[in-house]
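Researcher: I've been going back and forth with a colleague about how Release factor glutamine methyltransferase might be arranged in three dimensions. Neither of us has a model we trust, so I'd like an independent prediction. The organism is Ancylobacter crimeensis, in case that matters for your notes. Sequence below.
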Amino acid sequence: MNGDGGESRAPATRAALLRSAADRFAAAGIPEPAREARLIVKAALGLTDADLIARGDAGVEAGLITHLTALIGRRCNGEPLARLTGQREFWSLPLALAPETLVPRPETEILVEVALAAFPDRAARLRILDLGTGSGAILAALLSERPNAVAIGVDRSEGAARQARNNLETLGFSGRFGIIVSEWGEALEARFDLVVSNPPYIVSADIDALEREVREHDPRLALDGGADGLDAYRAIASALPSLLAPGGRAVLELGIGQEAAVATLLEAQGLPPEGPARPDLAGIPRALLTTAMPVLPSCSKKRLGTPSRTD
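Model: Here is an independent structure prediction for Release factor glutamine methyltransferase. You can compare it with whatever you and your colleague have in mind.
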């Protein structure tokens, strides 16, 4: 009891808040409620895993509890955790998000793996182009693995372009990249060794049937692939012949069931894919690789071995 005759209450502890968040997430049907609770408590209270383990009994001030409670409520109402924290890790790199950027997905790391396998020399001096760069996740991964590479990221959204620039600068890639606001490759005259893209590929009519976290919180511009989901692939395929250097390679992320159609678009531009697309962990063909034909050196008859006349 306190001096006024009222009952004194101990402040809520970190551990108690963690349990409460996990219980609410479980009741709301959120997958992996304990993991999500740990992440949201850490973000809201500014803690590390070590803080939660070593000092779980520490009290939390009322203002932070109010902030955490609001975030938990938003998560239970379907807002993605990455939108609440404003960050998502991709390729073990922390990326800040903006309303105009997609939340990077684990399956997009398959695209990065295919691109790196296409250029296995870590010291390669690559010129990389990312069409529809969004948060800059793919460029960040590639620049981190190929320290002599330079890159250009293109996006139709000014907000996404701004966020990509901020992320790449924060990660220490200043001086190695440029960001352009443009419709795909229209503003570019240079040629690149590697072109990558995770374009919008959802059929327009299917967007309203997507899971709530996607349809309500991801930017439609980054989702909508047109009436058949292939609008962006058409634009990219038609641009690739003028964007790829001789022998350059392109890797495109695919939506479900799109491999054959995208392969046909590439073949029509003289860029047949190199075998089947690499599948993701669910077995869905996810990353398609193609290569521009190298330019053969012009050869004189003498170089071809035509015998010269002797008298």
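Researcher: What would you highlight for our discussion?
Model: I'd start with this: The chain has a mean pLDDT of 90. After that, consider the following. Strands lie at 87-90, 93-96, 127-131, 150-155, 177-181, 192-197, 244-253, 278-279, 285-291.
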